[in-house]
């Protein structure tokens, strides 16, 4: 009989949650399993370059996710204590208030996350309380890898091949059958804050959004059901995943994966079932392949620690990065004069989402064409992305900027070619930049080439209603080698 406290972080679910399982077993029928979520004020402050650390879309999504977690726990007989404060301070208080015997949590990649864990460990030591932690969020667990974290290969293909040869992932754990939790009357459960109380302006819904992502395990599971089974889109994932416009071009699992309302092992188990019951093909394999990229960035973050966030990146490459605020603003606001970049940046600001193809292009443009410090881009993404995940974001930015794990050396995207390849009819650009809507498909990606007569014919004045390019694509690319 014991009183256990489960500290929820980016693992906002009751399924496939080992600390929750261990805590409920440990507490037994005579003890209690309490659950806690802290809205940490450090997550709602300003970043190094002055951006909001958590913008409106992710704030809304997070509040919804915590609300859903509370519902799920209540259904099992439990309760979620909610606080607006630092976990280390809150846990220290709760240890006394609830006579806690052990604290259970998932460990996470990222140095700030690690520092917070250390502060929680200290608080527990002071309270003479045992902690039980497990690794969170990846398909494969560190103990199932064929190498130590310090030996994770620097090249993804090497990592993937070793894993495919010698490692398998575990099945997801079911949620506990029930949770015993009797909160003493003196303990306030705590209301969920609104965005404003967290210092964030509530997001406005943009009519151009195709989907209003709803946070939480319930919505995450519904999306899994919808994408695999109801719409049967997994069978063509490999062919459609680079699309930018339609919701079902790719899985859109990332927002739920990022805050842990959906577990990658649950997705993998459903993919296996789909392979047995419908079809096993290149596409079903490729979704798991992408989840392995995600795992890889998590392990690389754990391996490299603070280097992931430093200007020289994982390779500690020193390059003459710029901090050009004017050009940075043009990029942020989608006013660079390159429609593919601008449409993607406007989608990000309006919805908190951008496709992988879009992210690679805008990242390449910021770093290789504008020569801007890649960390400014990474922080802007951190602020706006609904699916922000520290390891995936900073790992991908390292990669895009050429300071991370790219075996292919210095690469940049030819934005206009990418636009023609991935938006051949211009529908994506037209959707997000209605000012260009009347330009024919074969000319929409290079509007600066339109003559005055053509501009009049298509109803747009380049340089006034839509900007001329802020740099030449090919001249600018040498700036940062
Ligand atoms: C500069 C840059 C920044 C990024 N920042 C993030 C981030 O903060 N959070 C995030 O989840 N993804 C990030 N990504 C990766 C990728 O763009 C998104 O995971 C993907 O677009 C999400 O859409 P989806 O769920 O439909 O992906 P799908 O194509 O359906 O892929 C399925 C899942 O695989 C994982 N995945 C796919 N590609 C990648 C990748 N390159 N790296 C890591 N995981 C991947 C995601 O969890 C995704 O949900 C970033 C990519 C770039 C180039």
From TrEMBL:
Q: Which residues bind FAD?
A: 237, 250-254, 387-389
- Record note on cofactor: Binds 1 FAD per subunit.
GO annotation terms (biological process): photoreactive repair
Ordered alphabetically, the record's keywords are: Chromophore, FAD, Flavoprotein
Photolyase/cryptochrome alpha/beta domain sequence ranges: 2-140
Domain of life, per lineage: Bacteria
Q: Does the keyword Membrane apply?
A: no
**UniProt keyword annotation of Flavoprotein present:** yes
Q: Where are the residues marked Electron transfer via tryptophanyl radical as a site?
A: 321, 374, 397
Which Pfam families has this protein been placed in? DNA_photolyase, FAD_binding_7
Q: Which cofactor does it need?
A: FAD; (6R)-5,10-methylene-5,6,7,8-tetrahydrofolate
Task: Return the SUPFAM superfamilies for the record.
Answer: Cryptochrome/photolyase FAD-binding domain, Cryptochrome/photolyase, N-terminal domain
- Molecular functions (GO terms): DNA binding; DNA photolyase activity; FAD binding
Give the family from UniProt. Answer: Belongs to the DNA photolyase class-1 family.
Q: What does this protein do?
A: May have a photoreceptor function.
Protein name, per record: Cryptochrome DASH
The organism named in the record is: Neorhodopirellula pilleata
What does the organism's lineage look like at the top? Bacteria, Pseudomonadati, Planctomycetota, Planctomycetia, Pirellulales
């Amino acid at each position: 009989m014991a009183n256990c406290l489960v500290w929820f972080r980016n693992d906002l679910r009751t399924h496939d949650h080992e600390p929750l399982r261990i805590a409920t077993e440990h507490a037994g029928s005579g003890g209690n399993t309490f659950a806690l979520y802290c809205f940490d004020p450090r997550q709602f402050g300003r970043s190094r370059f002055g951006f909001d650390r958590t913008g409106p879309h992710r704030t809304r999504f997070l509040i919804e996710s915590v609300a859903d977690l509370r519902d799920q726990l209540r259904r099992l007989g439990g309760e979620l204590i909610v606080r607006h404060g630092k976990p280390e301070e809150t846990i220290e208080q709760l240890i006394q208030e609830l006579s806690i015997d052990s604290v259970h949590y998932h460990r996470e990649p990222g140095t700030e996350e690690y520092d917070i864990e250390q502060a929680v460990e200290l608080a527990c030591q002071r309270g003479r309380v045992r902690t039980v932690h497990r690794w969170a969020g990846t398909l494969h667990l560190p103990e199932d890898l064929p190498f130590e974290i310090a030996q994770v290969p620097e090249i993804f293909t090497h990592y993937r091949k070793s894993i495919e040869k010698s490692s398998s992932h575990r099945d997801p754990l079911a949620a506990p059958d029930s949770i015993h939790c009797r909160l003493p009357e003196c303990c306030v459960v705590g209301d969920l804050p609104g965005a404003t109380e967290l210092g964030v302006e509530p997001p406005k819904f943009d009519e151009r959004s195709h989907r209003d992502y709803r946070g939480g395990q319930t919505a995450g599971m519904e999306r899994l059901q919808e994408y695999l089974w109801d719409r049967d889109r997994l069978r063509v994932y490999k062919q459609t995943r680079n699309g930018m416009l339609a919701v079902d071009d790719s899985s859109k699992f990332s927002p739920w994966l990022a805050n842990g309302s959906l577990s990658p092992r649950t997705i993998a188990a459903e993919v296996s079932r789909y392979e047995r019951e419908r079809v096993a093909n290149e596409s079903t394999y490729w979704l798991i392949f992408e989840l392995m990229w995600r795992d890889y960035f998590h392990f690389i973050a754990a391996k490299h620690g603070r280097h992931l966030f430093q200007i020289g990146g994982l390779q500690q490459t020193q390059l003459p990065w710029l901090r050009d605020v004017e050009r940075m603003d043009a990029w942020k606001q989608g006013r660079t004069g390159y429609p593919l970049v601008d449409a993607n940046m406007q989608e990000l600001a309006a919805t908190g989402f951008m496709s992988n193809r879009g992210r690679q292009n805008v990242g390449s443009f910021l770093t290789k064409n504008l020569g801007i410090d890649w960390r400014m881009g990474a922080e802007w993404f951190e602020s706006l992305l609904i699916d922000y995940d520290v390891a995936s974001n900073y790992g991908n930015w390292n990669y895009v900027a050429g300071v991370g794990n790219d075996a292919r050396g210095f690469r940049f995207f030819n934005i206009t070619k990418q636009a023609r390849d991935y938006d051949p009819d211009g529908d994506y650009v037209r959707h997000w930049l209605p000012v260009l809507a009347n330009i024919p498909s074969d000319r929409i990606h290079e509007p600066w080439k339109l003559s005055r007569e053509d501009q009049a014919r298509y109803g747009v004045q380049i340089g006034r209603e839509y900007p001329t390019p802020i740099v030449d694509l090919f001249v600018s690319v040498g700036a940062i080698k």
